[in-house]
Amino acid sequence: MLGTAGVMRSVIARDLTLAWRRKADVFVAVLFFVIVASLFPLGIGPEPQLLRAIGPGVVWVAALLASMLALSRLFAADYADGTLEQMLLAATPLSIIVIAKVIAHWIAANIPLVLIGPLLGLQFGLPGDALAVLALALALGTPSLSLIGAIGAALTLGLRGGGVLLALLVLPLYAPVLILGSLAVEATAAGLAAQPYLLLLAAMSLAALSLAPWAIAAALRISHE
Amino acid sequence: MSSATREALPQGITWFKYAAPQTFFPLAGALAPWFAAIAVVLFVAGLYIGFFVAPTDAQQGEAYRIIFIHVPAAWMSMLIYLVMAFWAGVGLAFNTRLSHMMASALAPTGALFTFLALWTGALWGKPTWGTWWAWDARMTSELLLLFLYFGFMALQAAIDDPRRADKAGAVLALVGVINIPIIYFSVKWWNTLHQGASVSLKSAPTMATTMLTGMLVMVFACWAYAIAAALWRVRCIILERERRSDWVRDYLGAGR
Fold it and tell me: Under an 8 A CB cutoff, do B186 and A225 touch?
């Protein structure tokens, strides 16, 4: 029998191995992120002043969408092959397994976004310190995106039109992260302190970490009734 | 639930009696016309006070009179979401079907009031602020609230099994109710950085008594309307869900 920590470790290791063997999925999400962010200058025009102003928001919106697109993979494969049913029956609390799965998902799907984000910020002419804050804000904010999004993914599991429905459910709930994340970068670019926004982002992620697993577990149980 | 277990419940507590769809159905049918009548009377009275008794506003002229619909609608939009989440929570905790049906019955009314608040806000904004839409904190969070209502209804509509639809919707409503204050405050901070308080509802002058009376009457009218609409809708939902039970068959047979 594995202890709680052992179960978490093995679930994370398993999901990361699966993600590593399907590298293409990760690359597609990252490419989507880059393409969405690159489309904005084409639509708006190459004026540096304007691009610098909209840069933080555009990068965050693109990150939100890319993070959301990856969500449907979170439970789909386990749901299809019956693994999820075994997880529901396991002696380890479902919320623990769910936390492990979300952590693995965040590492595989969102850390690439954190790493690529500053590069996109550079395209929009953001100054150096703003780029560092952008990476930090993405690192602090994306965990709550994964956690809140996982609730939506669990609720829409196996439904027709799941992808579009997921967007409708999850994107309004993403609004605070988008706002605080963009504000942190804009404040830095304007020479103000970004710390309050970063702290709020971290607080939101911690609150999501403590509350979301229950909702995710409840939603998974509902989908298997 | 079989009728045997229902009869085994303690009969002394009348509150639980109406937790059964079968007993709530006639109660809702008896109450709904009364609330509808109260709503009509109060709407007429409130609109009369609003349009003929209340004085013209010194700054905004006649345009302010939309407040008699706008403010009650905005209040109802938030209140109904709370009530909906409350019934969803009760439904999850006690596994009562009627609570879930009530939550589903409230959602369209809540969405309607949210839409009305946004629409009348736009109509009010054009003559006073000179714009249909401003990214004001309240308007933005009201818009997000509308999306939350749509999400709830879309999720329930996408699930064929009613029990799963009920519970999935309940989880979403509860997640939404935790998020509403977070959304409101984040939007507020965002707004203060972007633009000053040029567009603020707080700077409205203190109201004349008749204005306040008219508005409160309209608020109660909206309450009565929302209750009547939800009761009628929940009756339809009960009939639809319980269509295979004997009492619905008897009821529908007797009506024919």
Answer: no
